[in-house]
Amino acid sequence: MIFFYAPNACSFASHLALEHVGASYEAHRLDFSKNEQRDDKYLAMNPKGRVPALMTDQGLLTENIAILAYIAQSYPEAKLVPVNDPFQFARVQAFNSYLSSTVHVAHAHNYRGYRWVEADDTHSIEAMKAKVPSTMSECFELIESTMIEGPWVMGDNYTICDMYLFTICQWLEGDKVDINQFPKVANLFQSMNEDEVVKRVKAKELL
After folding, report:
1. How far from chain centre, in Å, is Cα 68?
2. Whole-prediction pTM value?
3. Counting CB atoms within 10 angstroms of each CB, which of 19, 85, 108, 109 has the fewest?
4. What is the pLDDT of residues 46-67, one digit of tens each?
C-alpha cells in the first residue's frame, strides 16, 4: 500500500491506524506549502487533490472515514472496530462522520475560508475566522457531554474514533480553544500523547 499524507492534516488519523495495526505500507508526504496536492501526477490519481489517500491492490481509497474503516476491517485482530456488531460499527461511523462533516468543516473556516467565499472577500473570511473558537467549542461541548463514554469514545475499547478525535484535538490550540474545558476529551488526548505509536507517527511526520 502507498499512503499519501501531509503533516498536521487530518491524514494523521489514518497514518496512526496504519502504524497501530502494523500494516506494510509506503508513506508519501505531500508538501501543501508547495501545492503538491495539486500536482498533475497526484491529481491524475486522486482528482480530489486532498489527503489522505491510500493506494491498495484493489484501487485508491480516499476520505478518513473510508480509510480508517478499511484498515480496521482488514486487521480485525487489532480490534479497532466491533466488526461483528453492525449496530456498534454504525455508531463508530456516526461519530467519525460527525468529525468529518461538522467538526473538521468548522475548523477549516479558520484557514480555508476561500472554499466558501471569494478569496478577495476579506471581510467574510475574517468573520468566518472570528467564529471558529465558538463553533469548535460548541462541537466539543457536544462530544464531551453526549459522545464520549470514557475512557475512550466507545467506552473501554480503543477504536478508530479515538484516532480521529485525537487528530482534530491537535488543532484546538490553533483554533483558540482550551481543551481543558472538556475533561473527558483532555484525558483521552493526554493518554494518546503518551502512546508509543502516536509518538512514532509524530516523529515520522516531524510534528
Report:
1. 9
2. 0.94
3. 85
4. 999 999 999 999 999 999 999 9
Query: pLDDT, tens digit, for every residue of 153-204?
Result: 999 999 999 999 999 999 999 999 999 999 999 999 999 999 999 999 999 9
Q: Which fold has domain 86-195?
A: Glutathione S-transferase Yfyf (Class Pi); Chain A, domain 2 (1.20.1050)
- DSSP classification of residue 34: G
The set of cell numbers assigned to 183 is: 475533561
Dihedrals φ, ψ of 142, to 5°? -70, -45
Alpha carbon of 102 to those of 23, 37, 80, 85, 172: distances in Å? 29, 23, 23, 26, 15
Residue whose grid cell is 480530489: 48
Average pLDDT for the chain: 95
Separation of alpha carbons 88 and 66, rounded Å: 16
Kindly report the backbone phi and psi dihedral angles of residue 60, in degrees, each rounded to the nearest multiple of 5, phi listed first: -90, 140
Classified as helix, coil or strand, 99 is: helix
Protein fold of 2-78: Glutaredoxin (3.40.30)
CA–CA separation, 66 and 87 (whole Å): 17
* Placement of cell 502516536 in the chain: 198
pLDDT band for position 117 (50/70/90)? confident
Q: How large is the C-alpha radius of gyration of the chain?
A: 17
CA gap 67, 50 in Å, rounded:
13
Contacts of 120 (CB under 8 A, 6+ apart): none
